[in-house]
Amino acid sequence: MTAGRGNGAARAPARCPATRQCAPARHRIAPGAATAWFLWLLWLLIGWAAPGQGQDRGLRDAGVLVGVDWLEARLGRDGLVVLDVHERPVQYFTQGHVAGAVQVRRASDLADPTSPELTGFPDRARFRETLRKWGIEDNSEIVIYDDTDTARASRLWLLLRLHGFASQQVKLLDGGLRAWQQGHALARHDVQPARGQVSLNGAAPPMLVDWRFVYERIVTHRDDRFVLVDTRAPREYTGELAVGAARGGHIPGALNIPARDGVNADGTWKARPDKAFVYAFLPFDKTIVLYGGTGDGASLAAAQLASLGYRRLRILDGGWGFWGNRLLLPVVQGARPYDAASQR
Questions:
Q1: Which site among 90, 115, 123, 158 is 20 to 30 Å from 47 CA-CA?
Q2: What is the assigned CATH class of domain 33-52+205-343?
Q3: Cβ contacts of 234 within 8 Å, gap of 6 or more
């Protein structure tokens, strides 16, 4: 497989570009490495050359992100719906929210209730009903934010994309609630919008894959048209920590690129060239299959990759929360995509 075999891993360059961090060992991959570095340098030049690159995050990431100024100028307009995805739902009322923002509950609104781990994505009919309760119409413009690192907001962004809502009408607020509250008072009352009539038609091609797809195409046949990416923290990938599943480790063949490597400490996304560096080893001409622990990190990675121009993106439904709890599915532990047993 072009991007996954551990026995072909190359050493990272001994020196890094000035002020840049070298790609961690878990990213190492021999085939296409020169191409990946060329792409990263190209993105770097684009990032430095683009006018206003450092000032206007709303123009920086292919229409995925908007900044506080962008939202401030449009707040209250007809057709704009702001959605709040707090980590703890009660904080919508205790901490507060953007004035007019509708509350989104991660566990009940953004998950399949039949999934024991609540990591699966809801089906179209259930999600459409949820959107209608939030007042969403087919022509609504949607801005989503959360109070952490945009992973939960990205899950909602991804769901809208999965189920066919026009992606150009959906934005993520860069920096989320933390950025907004630096210059704005927060509201604490519940927002109950008029019911909407959004339709949803489904994404073309479908973006969601199940465990059978990964097991057959990637684990069994090692189809080199696909690159499998584990978006969790390195210690979860190696198996040092078992989080949200009975077993630690990763799916055979998966590269480890933590989605949160593309986010700054304050919850804003890293500048475009730095974010391109995080994903530099992923080819544009292959289908990238993403998974995380609950689907939130994979959603964040999908949003970041989409902002960088990647179009062939798939998400493993249920993520590690599903795979790691199925004892008959193979698991690799350690820092390499494959272990000795899985390479035989």
A1: 158
A2: alpha beta
A3: 24, 26, 256, 258, 335
With 0.90 as the threshold, say if the pTM is over it.
no
Element (H, E) at 226: strand 226-230
Fold matches, 33-52+205-343 and 63-180: yes
Does domain 63-180 match CATH 3.40.50.300? Answer: no
Task: Report phi then psi at 132, rounded to 5.
Answer: -65, -35
CA–CA gap between residue 213 and residue 303 (Å, rounded): 22
Q: Check if the beta carbon of residue 92 is closer than 8 Å to that of residue 86.
A: yes
Residue type, 223: D
The tokens for 130 are: 């949820």
What are the residue boundaries of the structural domains of the chain, listed by start? 33-52+205-343, 63-180
Q: For 107-141, b where at least 16 C-beta lie within 10 A, e where not — what string?
A: eebbbbeebebbbbbbebeebbebbbebbbeeebb
